[in-house]
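Hi support team,

I'm filing this because I wasn't sure whether my run with benzoic acid finished correctly. The job status page said complete, but I'd like someone to confirm that the output block is well-formed before I use it downstream. Pasting the exact inputs I used:
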Amino acid sequence: MPDKQRIHTPSRRTLLKGASAMAAFAALGRFPSPAIAQGAPIKIGFMLPYSGTYTKLGKYIDHAFRLNVEEKGGKLGGRTVEYVQVDDESEPAKATDNMNRLVAREKVDVVVGTVHSGVAMGMVKVARDANALLIIPNAGANAATGPMCAPNIWRTSFSNWQPGFPMGKVMYDAGHRNVMTITWRYAAGQEMVDAFKENYTKAGGNIVEELYVPFPQVEFQALLTRIATQKPDAVFSFFAGGGAVKFVKDYAAAGLKNSIPLYGTGFLTDGTLEAQGADAEGIKTTLHYADDLDNPANKAFIAAFKKKTGEDADVYAVQGYDTATLLDIGLKAAGGDVAAREKMYAAMQAAKIDSPRGPISFSKANNVVQNVYLREVKGGMNRYVSIAHAALADPARGCKLAS
Ligand code: BEZ
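And here is everything the job wrote out:
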């Protein structure tokens, strides 16, 4: 995967188009920024994992964002689009350099990224310092729309709190009173477990033990033996991508699947089912998407994604697709001018999107508000069971924009 794409040189035709756009703005009594006047494309920097355990997640976000732009005639907010890609390798230590490269060297108009919460926190710091527009299409780090929230930082995916919290009640209501948790030891795993625990213990449930594996390791054997010894009523977990495939298969191979029910946030079985096969059947998870959501936007999106990529869409693709929709709404309101930040942000705040995941809107902290669904794996699909929590907003603890 190349980490950088073409640098666009405007043609005579785009320069002429730019001249007429300039005349239109002048008639409104306001001159656009030089880039708009010259018909320059909007420059989007993708900072995503194109290698490692989250490769597929990054690629699906990228593919679906581009699909959305193609459906808009190759434009966002009326401007053609140029992409620059950086592989962040899900490596927090490289996040600042990679982000600086996009913002300071490439001078992108918008950064879209990333998947890994630890990398996202590095990006948020740079975005705040440089006042760069950042839209997060996956990483759930609570702080990004909590204490580190800012007018230029948006999230179209979820906070780690959102998919974890509803599962506390789901598992309690299923009659499980003594539960173990297992996840990778980094922000996403810790925050999803914490959100689950918050709701589960409030209901009266008891946490027997919390187990952790360093990210992105997949040596689960010793911890699976521990679960077999402790015999909890059920297990709550967060893993995603390649790690989720391995965990679900190892859980079944350890003979636990039929004795200790496995639950999790939906990342455990999203985009992974082909590889997990029968070992995933029956697993219940909570997430803001289900494959069979019965709405026109989902049907159209699944078909269009299949046509473009030959693959089945998943939650990561939906998030990438919605990121382009949100940016288009903001850019349109600003006449394509990313410098007209107030107009952009006002329109993004007011956005109501008919997403493939159902209706979404945005909180004062710039985080998505959405339904969280209970799903069950049946016949190789994450099938809708019920709405576990309707229109769930992250509490945005510590965010000054939200108070
Ligand atoms: C995260 O690091 O925030 C994350 C990664 C994959 C799936 C969900 C969350």
